[in-house]
Structure formats: C-alpha cells, structure tokens
Amino acid sequence: MAGTNPRSAKESTCPDRRSFIRSLGAASLGLAASGLPALASMEKTQTKTPQARLDPAAPLRIGMIGRTGHTYMVFGELDKIAGARIAAYAFEDGGWQYNCDGTKRGGSYDMDSQRKWVENQSWSSSGPKLYETYQEMLEKEELDLAVACLPYARNAYAAAAAAERGLNILCEKPVAVNFADLDMLESAVKKSNVRLSAMFAMRYGSSFYTIKQAVGRGLVGKPCMGRAQKSYKFGQERPWFYRHREIYGSSILWVGIHAIDYIRWIMDLEVRRVSAFHGNLAHRDYPGLQDHGVVSMELEGGASAAVTLDYLRPEQAASHGDDRLRVIGSQGVVERKDIDGKVELIGRGESSRLLELESPKSLLEDFVGELRGKNTHMIGPEEAVRVTRICIAATQAADEGRVVKV
Which residue in 14, 152, 268, 295 has a CA-CA distance of 20 to 30 Å to 254? Predict the structure, then answer.
C-alpha cells in the first residue's frame, strides 16, 4: 500500500517477538527513571549479566553495511552463533558524494559485481537481500544487528542511522573521526537505548587477554605504567581515502586505537590527559595518513602509559604486524615482547616465567551473548565512544602541539 512504512508492516506479523523487545525497552527506561544506574554507566561496577535485548530463542538477522575493514570478524564467526545469518547487505552510503571505491555517486551503479562477490562468500547460502545503500536497507528490512564497515569517516552516520531504527550496532573502529560526529552518534545511541560496540579485536587475542587476567589477579601488584607498540607493513598500496585526512581520520585513530584501548582496558585505569606527535616521512603519496606516531597518556591515580605506532615495518618481515605490550606494576612486570605472542611474567623475588595463554570467545560471539542475556560483553556500553574520544583528542594534541584533557 502506498505510504505504508515497510518496517511497521512487518512488525505486525511477529507480535510476540516485538512485544519481547518492547518490554525490555520499557524495563530499561524504568530503571533510568528510578535513579538507579543504567547499563551504559556501569563500565567498572557491573557484575551481573545485563538483561537481554534480543530474544535468545529467535534467529539473529544481521545487516551488513560496507566492505571496508574487518568484515571477516563477522563472516568467520557466524557458525558459532545459533540462528545467526547475513539477512541483508548494503554497499554504499546514499548520503555521501563518493562510493566506497572512490568514484563519484550519481551515475549508474554496478550491482552485478557486488552480487557476484556475495555469491562467492560461504555465508551467501542465507540468501541475503542486496541493496545499493544502507538507507534503503534500513528502511525495508527488519533486522536485529547492524554492522558498519564503511570508509572511516562514514561509520558514525551509518551507525547513527541504525540506532535511530532501534538496531544494536557493531561498528568498525574508529566509530567517528571528529568530535562532532562522535557526539551525534553518542546521542543517537542513548536516545534509542541501543547497544553499540566497536571492533576492538585485540582484546580477544590470547596474549592480551592473558595479560588482562594476570593484571586483574594482582600478579604485578598495582599497575603503574604501560607501554605498547603497533607496527604494520604498509603494503603496495592502501585504499584511496587514505589520501584524504577528513575521511581517513588519523593513524592514531586507525592503528593506535587498538593499543590505546588495550592499555586502558588491561590496566583498568581511565585516561585523563594526552599528548602526541605524528608525521609522514616515507609515504608522501598518501598525505592523509601518518606513517609514525607516539601517544603519551596520563592515567587516573598517577599512572602513565605510552603507545608507538608506525606503517614502517619492512615488507620482508615474518608477520604483517608486530604488536607488543609491557605493563609495569608495583610488584612485577608482565609483557608480550615478540611476534610469537608469548607472555612473560617477572614477579618480585622470582625468576621470569611464561604464562599459559588463555582465550576468550570471539568478539561477535561475546557481543551477541550479551544481547541475548547470556554474558557480559568485554567491551562496555560506553567504551566504543570513550576510546574513540581519547584517540580524537590525541590526534588533536599531535596536530596542535599541546596536552589535551579527556
């Protein structure tokens, strides 16, 4: 019927499920009205599993947006999650002047090549509906989870649009590249009372997870200082938008964000002030990025931390990345200091020893588990925004040569 909202029409066909979701929203609003802490403000004090946002017995319908970044973190984990499938896929942002490949929007669009790409994917058997733009997909499809993987400056817009539709969101990092877009996204998420998470994948690596457990068990005493390294190969080329600062954001936001996130998470200390330096000396064909940088952080309680990042790892190196971490405490040191991912602990009065590595669930499995009321997601309700805010502040500090409060 002309003028009918497709989403509203579909909701009427499954009242039990929609009643379930609406009842959860009403419960959350009641909690906030009572003066008790809402889920989004319980980063460090939360001990109980949050109330389910999705019916755990229902299928999980995922809407993918874009093909930029770590989409494999969804594609490779679907079989671990009961009922999960790619229900729809949108490739472009209809509100942007560019397509994701850098061509100007407005002309004919080659959906055939996108369709062929989908047909070659192992998950294509779920028969996803394909759309040129995410705006059309969100208008027509009934979904449970949106995954945003666009060129970095556009993720905030896609995530905010999904939030306005009442969808929970997993977003590629950074979730925004400037404060205005980040504030816009944060407002949309809070207004719709949806759950936002970011692809902070390194929390789920066994070595960093093991260091987190060691620090949490007090094996190094009180955390005093953290030092991390992110070193990547640049490769033969990078996406076109790496030449445009306003789209790329910064290498602090794309590369350094992982280390800034896991230092803050592992030490369990909030960042108070940041200073930074960055530059581009070896990749002048990509003026939008920085091929090296360093970020210094003042943490709460007087602790400190530093992160170095670069795109200067030699192409002949054994691995694409070289990620390291050293946490120094009042009673010892724990660190990942080589590309093998081994974790060494040196405690006061004892010889160094390697810790047995521990492994968590995958990021997607962990996130969906919280949405279904089965566990608490390792990335807290406000952390996607908070960590991004720290990285935007660090970028500002590097650009302006000053210390910035966060």
Answer: 268
Contact (CB, 8 A) for 88 and 130: yes
Cα–Cα dist 387/265, whole Å: 10
C-alpha closest to that of 378 among 213, 217, 220, 214: 213
In whole angstroms, give the CA distance from residue 330 to residue 224: 7
User: With the CA atoms of 177, 179, 184 and 186 taken in that order, what torsion angle do they form, in degrees rounded to the nearest 10?
Assistant: 90
Whether the upstream peptide bond of residue 56 has omega within 30° of 0, thus cis, is no
Q: How far apart are CA 242 and CA 239, in angstroms?
A: 6
Judge contact between 342 and 354, C-beta under 8 A. yes
The CB density around residue 126, as the number of other CB atoms within 10 Å, is 16
Give the residue-averaged pLDDT of 141-145. 98
Structure-token pair, residue 264: 């803050």
Q: What is the DSSP string of 263-332?
A: HHHHHT--EEEEEEEEE-SS-TT-TTS-SEEEEEEEEGGG-EEEEEEES---TTSSSSEEEEEEEEETTE
Is a pLDDT exceeding 80 seen at residue 17?
no
3-state secondary structure of 27: helix
Measured CA distances, 351 to 96, 215, 216, 332, 348 (Å): 58, 18, 20, 11, 8
How many Å apart are CA 45 and CA 33, to the nearest integer?
19
Which of 29, 345, 361, 304 shows the shortest CA–CA distance to 214?
A: 345
**What pTM was computed for the model?**
0.88
Q: How far apart are CA 205 and CA 203, in angstroms?
A: 6
The total of other beta-carbon atoms located within 10 Å of residue 340's CB is 9
Which tens digit of pLDDT belongs to each residue from 146-174?
999 999 999 999 999 999 999 999 999 99
Give the separation between CA 231 and CA 343, rounded to whole angstroms: 18
Sheet hosting strand 196-198, strand order edge to edge? 129-133, 84-92, 60-65, 145-148, 168-171, 196-198
Residue 137 · residue 161 · CB < 8 Å? no
All domains in the chain, ordered by first residue:
6-201+365-379 (3.40.50.720), 206-359 (3.30.360.10)
Question: Packing angle between helix 179-192 and helix 383-400, nearest 10 degrees?
Answer: 170
In terms of Cα–Cα distance, which of 170, 164, 154 is closest to 189? 164
Under 8 Å between Cβ of 188 and 160 = yes
